[in-house]
């Protein structure tokens, strides 16, 4: 758990939530996933996602929503990342929903990242 100045704590939590949700969004959206691989190998990306999940679990220990991240982490440990399996995509989408991030109007399968 992040401790100390409440401003720093809130900032740390917000940054960790944002990072993790952005990475999960890339897993949830097949058209966005290739963007995640532009600068990272599949193994490096896997490490970044697992690290983001672990860091988020640390700052949100005891918050029920964090349990939604476990299936993503478990699927990452067991499966190839490129392309993400249906199980991994479904786990990412479920985790996003648990954190209150709705499916885009056009659906995850059709959503494209906009610059």
Can you tell me about this structure?
The chain has 115 residues and is an all-alpha fold. 58% of the residues lie in helices and 0% in strands. It has helices at 6-28, 33-36, 42-59, 70-78, 86-98. The longest helix is centred in the N-terminal third of the chain and has 23 residues, at 6-28. The model has no long low-confidence stretch (mean pLDDT 86).
Write the layout of secondary structure elements.
Blueprint: H1 6-28, H2 33-36, H3 42-59, H4 70-78, H5 86-98
Helix pairs in contact: 1-3, 1-5, 4-5
Distance between the termini: 33 Å
Major beta sheet summary: none
Coarse shape: globular
**β-sheet strand percentage:** under 5%
Rg (C-alpha, Å): 14 Å
Order of helices and strands: HHHHH
How many discrete structural domains? 1
Low-pLDDT windows of residues: none
Number of helices: 5
Helix proportion = 55-70%
> Using DSSP, what is the number of strands?
0
The overall pLDDT, averaged over residues, is 86
**Structural class category:** mainly alpha
Keywords for this entry:
115 residues, mainly alpha, 5 helices
